[in-house]
Amino acid sequence: MADEASGSGADLAISHLRAGYGHLDILHDVSLTVRRGEFVTLLGPNGAGKSTLLKTLYGMTTHKAGSIRWKGREVAGGKPRAFLAEGFGYVPQGRCNFPTMSVHENLEMAAYTLKDGDLEGERNHVYELFPILRKRRNEFAGNLSGGEQQLLEMAMAVLRRPEILLVDEPSAGLAPQAITLVFDELKRLHEGGRTVLLVEQNTRKAMAAAGRVVVMRLGHVIWDSPTADLSHAALGQLFMTGKVEDPSVEPPVHGIH
Ligand SMILES: Nc1ncnc2c1ncn2[C@@H]1O[C@H](COP(=O)(O)OP(=O)(O)OP(=O)(O)O)[C@@H](O)[C@H]1O
Ligand SMILES: [Mg+2]
What we know:
By secondary structure, the chain is an alpha/beta fold. It has a domain at 12-92 and 164-241: Rossmann fold. Helix content is 33%, strand content 25%. The chain has helices at 50-56, 80-86, 103-110, 119-129, 131-135, 146-158, 176-191, 203-209, 232-241, and strands at 12-21, 24-34, 39-43, 62-70, 73-74, 88-91, 164-168, 195-199, 212-217, 220-226. Helix 3 (103-110) packs parallel to helix 6 and helix 6 runs parallel beside helix 7 (176-191). Residues 21, 24, 26, 44, 46-52 line the site of adenosine-5'-triphosphate.
């Protein structure tokens, strides 16, 4: 079955965005563009605001100023349901499926918001994308391995046929084999036509998978380039100091995996 993301023109243009939680500003003057079909990784030290940016792209924070244009339309300040309807798929940090429901039932829960309600068709579609979940369909989600649970999370987002997938640290807490599995699936989803914005702590895997790297620090975007233009050592410098003298500098700095 052809795996094409629905719709077209998935351009995301964030401009001078300020957002946070209530009175607290976390994102300061963030500007970033993601073109249709791109795989962009968003990296940065703990507390940089990466999750906050993804949450803002799903209507889960307080929008203060600036613009989020999606396919030319302003969507900033919308509620999660509006972002969902616009074709945003969000896979949050940490696993949050329903552990005492089966894989099959979890996918049914994910289909709850489908307008035309073709549950079986959509569920078969994700089973084709993630055959491992078909095999485990009657298992309680809570009994899946960490890697399989992460795949289920991605499948629940994919079931709603998003045009852009916002994925927050899918490899966190996973064994090396499971990390490889998750990244392979992400690459496949991207090759199937989806636009991907991926937040990761596993910077090597993320840089290898993505075409472009954006680095955040203290609520600001401090770097944006093709991944090939930023060495791993230079990425380490950006994390630690917010600056880099030579983006191609090697050998690697310790402490960044
Ligand atoms: N719900 C919230 N209410 C208030 N402050 C929050 C909330 N969530 C996050 N923050 C704060 O926002 C800042 C950015 O957090 P965020 O989770 O976006 O960082 P991050 O880059 O995703 O970090 P990590 O790599 O640790 O996941 C932090 O100072 C954090 O304490
Ligand atoms: Mg985070």
